[in-house]
Amino acid sequence: MEWDSLWFNGHAATMAPEGVVRDAVIAVKDGRIAWIGAAKDRPAGRAAAEHDLGGRWVTPGLIDCHTHLVFGGNRAREFEMRLEGATYEEIARAGGGIASTVAATRAADEDSLIASAAVRLQRLLAEGVTVVEVKSGYGLDLATERRMLRAARALGERFPVTVRTTGLAAHALPPEFAGRADDYIALVCDAILPTLAAEGLLDAVDAFCERIAFSPEQTARVFDTARRLGLPVKLHADQLSDGGGAALAARYNALSADHAEHTGEEGARAMAAAGTVAVLLPGAFYMLRETKLPPIDLFRRHGVPMAVSTDCNPGTSPAVSLLLMLNMACTLFRLTPQEALAGVTRNAAQALGMAATHGTLEPGKAADLAVWDVGDPAELCYWLGANPCAAVVRGGRLVKS
Ligand code: NIG
Ligand code: FE
């Protein structure tokens, strides 16, 4: 038998240079795409299982490349405070915000972290997500950061999804280090990150470079540590102000600079030169009632690849729908549907350093497919609150139908 499985009678939005293949055939062998093309060009050969797509559309499995999926508690009360007029920064400075989730996460054991994140993860998976990045960052001590990352990895074993873990120990200053940010960064660089890396729990390192978090100098120390550990970096950059975060990230050849609402031309130029992806997070923009739009035209003009993600987190973006983010990226940020779809496939893979294996439908890539009951791929960006996902294939195996 030439192939393990074969999918026919559908249309493929490959997200590769080939673009759209109508009346497509996708042949799978050993969990990878062995052949993809138009039915009329199908090479001779048979598959152990043949699946009729019934005229539906197929895209690469969706990739949610920026989440804080694992956390204790929630911040619904803080949401009410913000509706009453308090700002995100004011709440953070008053000891709420990230710090309140840190307290709830420190109090949660691994099983309850897994259980609460599993509910959110299943919502993502139901919409065709096959790869998800999960950050630590609500522990801010070695034991809890480790517990979060172990919970994230456990989710990847229990559910049909590829989990990438990112160490975000430099997310906020833990209360026990109040007034001693440099000491905390020293702990992150000398102990927390090296230990987590040695335990094999990190695929990348992230930080929050912002007035209410860490300075560019402190962020650079974290990035130097990542470099020493051989780990790629990402950055929460220029979310609330232009602190030069995107340019700093680019200096370290970061996989991505995320949020980037306040990034200026210099940052965009540096990102383009470094191949750093701009990860757009419309859920956080919307929840914070941000008015400063990310510089989409600058990113287009300089050729900065744009990804789109949920930023699923209890504070700024309690979002569990990547499809809704597609709509919001188009409606709020004026991305075209094509750009938005590239943002949850090809460019999201690049933002995770996975472009060689994921994010497009091409021979040799993982057979991660999402099958959609739509008349055109742009429809994925159109509906609000509908889920046209008809089937999901991961590594060649049907995991939802
Ligand atoms: O991506 N900006 C920093 N981190 C998160 C929010 C974390 C939180 O408020 O709990 C974000 O927006
Ligand atoms: Fe985030």
Write the layout of secondary structure elements.
Elements: E1 3-13, E2 20-29, E3 32-38, E4 47-52, E5 57-60, E6 62-64, H1 76-83, H2 88-93, H3 98-106, H4 110-126, E7 129-135, H5 142-158, E8 162-170, H6 181-198, E9 204-209, H7 216-229, E10 234-237, H8 245-251, E11 256-259, H9 265-274, E12 277-280, H10 282-287, H11 296-302, E13 306-308, H12 322-333, H13 337-343, H14 346-351, E14 369-372, E15 389-394, E16 397-400
Parallel strand pairs: 1-4, 1-5, 6-7, 7-8, 8-9, 9-10, 10-11, 11-12, 12-13
Antiparallel strand pairs: 1-2, 2-3, 5-14, 14-15, 15-16
Bound molecules: N-(iminomethyl)-L-glutamic acid and fe (iii) ion.
Question: Helical element count?
Answer: 14
CATH level-four homologous superfamily name of the largest domain = Metal-dependent hydrolases
Strand content: 15-25%
Number of strands: 16
Report the biggest beta sheet as strand number plus sense, adding barrel if it closes.
Answer: 8 strands, mixed
CATH class identity of the largest domain: Alpha Beta
CATH topology of the largest domain: TIM Barrel
Q: Helix/strand-derived class? A: alpha/beta
Q: What is the correct CATH architecture of the largest domain?
A: Alpha-Beta Barrel
Helix content: 25-40%
Order of helices and strands: EEEEEEHHHHEHEHEHEHEHEHHEHHHEEE
Low-pLDDT runs of 5+ residues are none
Gyration radius, rounded: 21 Å
Tell me, what's the shape?
Answer: globular
Catalytic activity: 4-imidazolone-5-propanoate + H2O = N-formimidoyl-L-glutamate
Enzyme class: hydrolase
Binding site for Fe(3+): 66, 68, 236, 311
Organism: Azospirillum brasilense
